[in-house]
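Example 210.
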Amino acid sequence: MLKYSAADRNKDAILQVLTTIVKSHYNNQDIQPLNALEIGSGSGQHVTHMARHLPHIRWQPTDVDQSLFESINSYIKHFNLTNVCPAVQLDVSSPSNRWPIFESEKFDLIYCANVIHISPWKCTIGLFEGSSMILSPKSGLLLTYGPYACDGVITPDSNVSFDDSLRQSNPEWGLRDIRDLKELATTNGLSFVSMHEMPANNKILVFKKT
Ligand SMILES: C[S@@+](CC[C@H](N)C(=O)[O-])C[C@H]1O[C@@H](n2cnc3c(N)ncnc32)[C@H](O)[C@@H]1O
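Predicted structure in complex with S-adenosylmethionine:
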């Protein structure tokens, strides 16, 4: 099983915010079964951590990179989780009408951590277009986690250096501006709900289907 140290560090803080958001959005009914889709699951550490602590949510992990499935599926087995489906391949940049058919037709939650700055902008476009298509109408939430620029400004210096290093690795990568994400959301029938400050200069952004 792969072990990303960053995922180990941030999983509890993310879980805490996610739990609060889900409880307040779904009226404190933490027994109501919900369906969640994760984009860019990586090692599988996040999805299995969330699934262990939010057993009323059924999770579908996905990633473009099939070589990660062994790790994701090993975590599922290791924790004996019955509320996580086996990983499915999904390239978030592919046209939304070519996304795989999942067990659940519509999702209450789409969760995407540390993907949109480490992939070309077309992946962010795909994320919002696809979310618009498969989120439950009127109630579905999209949560993104990572570092962002805000109105053209990146803070603090460590995030500026991180952005530089990403763009050096791949000119199509880099921190995304929250202003652009809000615009993309509106274009796709989603609206910005809230922003949550997270440790290590990251944020959670929440959008909902309108
Ligand atoms: C930095 S890792 C984040 C993994 C995990 N979400 C976390 O926070 O620990 C970025 C992930 O995005 C995935 N990814 C990159 N491009 C993608 C695409 N076009 N569609 C879906 N996933 C993609 C990569 O394969 C990788 O697993």
